[in-house]
Specification:
There is one protein chain. The chain has 21 helices and 36 strands. By secondary structure, it is an alpha+beta fold. It folds into 3 domains: 340 residues, no CATH class; 34 residues, no CATH class; 274 residues, Nucleotidyltransferase, domain 5 (2-Layer Sandwich). It has an 8-stranded mixed sheet, with helices on one face. Strand 35 and strand 36 form a beta hairpin. The chain is elongated and about 125 Å long. The termini are far apart.
């Protein structure tokens, strides 16, 4: 088993053989030579429909876009002498994987001459209808569907013979490629755009294409136009190189500029327009003018490339691509695009016509540039929610239901460890990575190794590394999140409720509070919150375990650890925070068979009624759990409104006095008129984070066995904030939960202090009893 550091790496990538069979050097033929037309017709067909090559006693299919990329696209390369030049790109294992991803995403449904089909409707439809027979004849034999085989399996397999061109009749999917720097993602994307412009988006070499009846549109954008401008410049450079005699042996250019018979490559297209963002009014397009009958006539297929800026700093940045219909929409450096989900929502309709998808959105980026990570991470780890082509996660622990986008690990882009056919020597590549990481680990600055992993990750979780490191248990939070998401287990844990004051006795009433289950209100689960995706902006009280009783009553100290993070009354849709409250059962009750040391309830909300409504609901929650004496722990410098509410209600006894031990003051000095704990600076925040991390990793034995506390966290919103937590951001759930842990540690310290005092008093009393000057022992009698 090959490992990087202590983790095994994924090595089941495609294997290749005889790649030289796909390399073509066009003969230098005059355009009037009949062989010229014959050769280039065949090349056009291969670039559009793909080709087959002999490999491993069978045949492997090479997609047309990959064939074009290998032979007719140029990239920059720097040689051993530090000289930079344009060369043909390599098509190693990773390029084949990306090409196969694109083929599947664009709707691959099988091969023309195959006895199998990958048409999705053939998987579940027992008999083809007349409409299906008419629309998909390639998937039918003798009036029945061909045997179904999944698209990915069909694309990747070695076939017994060439099976003809690829059929593209399935619905399209989106692509999400994320990973290391230096992976060639932009070059392959640029080649795909050029391919689309030159061949007008066709997948069949037919008369419609040859007569110029087809057209296609492409879209490129990013949060920073400089990032997407680089991709656009690669498209232009490769197109214009097809008129450069220096590349005549690659592109079949005849003669030199100025010659009467100078002829650019047949792959060249005259382009006009701008590539400067935004270029909606003057897109880069195939258009030229010719003089016919004494007047100038516009010619060309009008296949075009739009370039937009999605910057969230622009009010309508997310809608920059709206209005068009694109065969491919490419979002560059997606890690910099904090509004990427809004971009997706806007662009979703631009790759469909009359409700039928024909185009693909491609998101791509490098992990080292992930500054606004949450939205990109959410899409990458939940691909099914955004119609993103998903893969089994073989690169770590993350991913909803084990599915992720396409991850590009560092060890797969190390060209020096690939053979002549482009196959990776995994052991050599892993050794190289291990040596780099070992050297980086010697630095006294831990950021050196962290940044190495973030910029050149080998496992998915390394992409999200905070430059300052994880302050809370990241890996454990990922595992717990995945466990809750599996089969929607989180829904079994949570009961959303509305609380109503009710002094009667009866079922569903707890300590004067009636509980009404309310599934119409959706608890906060996603982080960051996207109000546009919620049925209602309101949160709700969530019960994970209803109040327990001993001898018919809820003990006053059973739920005495309640943490609360206040909020200011900002609009949620403008990024304002929410109020959060968590309730933990006293650990001491675990010894009596209860679920001590676990979260039993939460209240995350920003109600329409403002702070007054929030604290009224919080007050009901506290009453429901027995009005824990001095149980509500808040931040001292942000809890004015909370304190005022409970003082006004004559319930100041619910507020926890300012801690004495956890924040360094003398245990015997207590100012009971001071409530809440201090969070005055980053040093204190760091100490409190360490306190939370320690508790999360501590073990508690309950009826379900011995587990770390984080393994019983029931709240997805809280877990997702654990994964992102730093000292600078707004993490309302973590801050609310932090109050529980401060209260718990203060309680423990008080118990220890009381035990110490009791023991000291006991020892003092024993000393007095044994003092012969005070008491006489044995047969002597005390004098009275």
């Amino acid at each position: 088993m090959i490992k990087i550091e202590s983790k095994p790496i994924y090595t089941d990538y495609i294997r290749l053989q005889n790649q030289e069979q796909f390399v073509v050097y066009p003969p230098l033929l005059h355009p009037d030579d009949p062989r010229y037309t014959l050769f280039w017709s065949k090349e056009f067909k291969k670039c559009i429909e793909g080709t087959w090559g002999k490999m491993f006693d069978g045949y492997r299919y090479m997609p047309g876009k990959l064939y074009f990329y290998k032979n007719y696209f140029l990239i920059q390369d720097t040689d051993a002498n530090k000289q930079t030049r344009y060369i043909r790109p390599r098509t190693d294992d990773i390029e084949w994987e990306l090409a196969y991803m694109a083929l599947e995403a664009h709707g691959f449904s099988g091969f023309l001459d195959d006895e199998y089909t990958s048409l999705e409707i053939a998987k579940d439809m027992p008999e083809p209808t007349d409409l299906i027979l008419q629309r998909y004849p390639e998937a039918i034999i003798d009036g029945k569907f061909k045997k179904y085989i999944p698209a990915r399996e069909n694309i990747r397999k070695i076939h017994d013979k060439p099976k003809g061109r690829a059929l593209m009749q399935n619905p399209t999917w989106n692509e999400f490629v994320l990973g290391t720097r230096g992976g060639g993602k932009s070059f392959s994307a640029a080649a795909e755009i050029e391919h689309g412009i030159i061949f007008d988006g066709t997948t069949v070499y037919n008369e419609d294409f040859r007569r110029g009846k087809l057209t296609s549109e492409y879209l490129v954008g990013s949060a920073d136009s400089d990032k997407s401008s680089e991709l656009c410049s690669k498209v232009r450079a490769s197109i214009e190189a097809k008129t450069n005699p220096n590349f005549r042996d690659i592109f079949g250019i005849w003669g030199n500029p100025g010659d009467d018979d100078f002829t650019p490559s047949p792959l060249f297209k005259d382009m006009t327009g701008s590539l400067v963002s935004p270029n909606k009014k003057n897109p880069y397009r195939h258009e030229y003018k010719v003089q016919l009958g004494g007047r100038w006539v516009t010619k060309g297929t009008n296949s075009k490339l739009y370039h937009v800026n999605y910057s969230p700093k622009k009010g309508d940045g997310a809608q920059a691509g709206a209005g068009g219909r694109y065969l491919k929409s490419i979002i560059e450096e997606v890690g910099l695009l904090e509004n990427v989900i809004d971009v997706h929502t806007s662009n979703d309709s631009t790759v469909a016509r009359d409700g039928i998808r024909f185009g693909v959105e491609r998101y791509q980026g490098t992990s080292g540039n992930i500054e606004y990570i949450q939205a990109s991470k959410k899409m990458f780890l939940s691909p099914q929610d955004y119609r993103i082509l998903s893969y089994d996660n073989e690169h770590g622990k993350e991913g909803r239901d084990g599915k992720v986008g396409f991850f590009l690990p560092f060890y797969m882009v190390l060209r020096q460890f690939k053979d002549k056919d482009g196959n990776t020597d995994y052991e050599a590549a892993a050794n190289h990575v291990n040596k780099i990481r070992e050297e980086k680990s010697k630095s006294s600055n831990p950021d050196v190794l962290r940044e190495e992993k973030m910029n050149r990750p080998c496992f998915i979780e390394e992409m999200w590394v905070n430059p300052k490191g994880y302050l809370l248990p990241y890996d454990e939070a990922v595992v717990r999140e995945r466990e809750l998401l599996t089969f929607d287990k989180y829904k079994e844990k949570e009961t959303p409720v509305t609380l109503i004051w009710d002094s009667k006795q009866g079922e569903g009433i707890y300590n004067g509070v009636r509980v009404k289950i309310n599934h119409d209100i959706e608890p906060y689960r996603e982080y960051p919150i996207d109000p546009s995706k919620r049925k209602t902006p309101n949160g709700t009280v969530v019960i994970y375990e209803f109040p327990q009783q001993i001898n018919g009553k809820t003990p006053a100290d059973m739920y005495r650890f309640v943490g609360h993070d206040p909020y200011v009354e900002e609009n949620l849709d403008k990024g304002g925070s929410v109020g959060s409250t968590y309730v933990i059962m006293n650990p001491k009750y675990a010894a009596q068979g209860f679920n001590g040391n676990t979260i039993v309830a939460s209240y995350i909300d920003k109600p329409i009624g403002g702070l007054a409504e929030y604290y009224e609901n919080q007050e009901k929650l506290l009453a429901m759990y027995g009005n824990p004496l001095q149980g509500l722990c808040i931040e001292k410098n942000r809890g004015q409104d909370c304190r005022a509410h409970y003082i006004k209600k004559n319930k100041a006894y619910l507020l926890m006095p300012s801690p004495n031990r956890e924040q360094g003051t003398n245990i015997y000095q207590k100012n009971v008129t001071s409530y809440g704990y201090n969070v005055g600076n980053k040093i204190v925040k760091l100490q409190l984070a360490k306190m939370m991390a320690d508790w999360l990793l501590e073990e508690t034995e309950l009826n379900d066995g011995i587990k770390k506390n984080i393994e019983r966290i029931p709240c997805l919103y809280l877990l997702r904030q654990f994964m992102s937590y730093d000292l600078d951001g707004n993490f309302d759930a973590v801050d609310g939960f932090r109050g529980c842990i401060v209260a718990l540690r203060e309680y423990e310290n008080l118990q220890i202090a009381e035990a110490v005092i009791k023991n000291e008093n006991k020892q003092t009393f024993r000393g007095l009893l044994s003092n012969p000057k005070i008491f006489k022992h044995g047969k002597e009698k005390q004098r009275v």
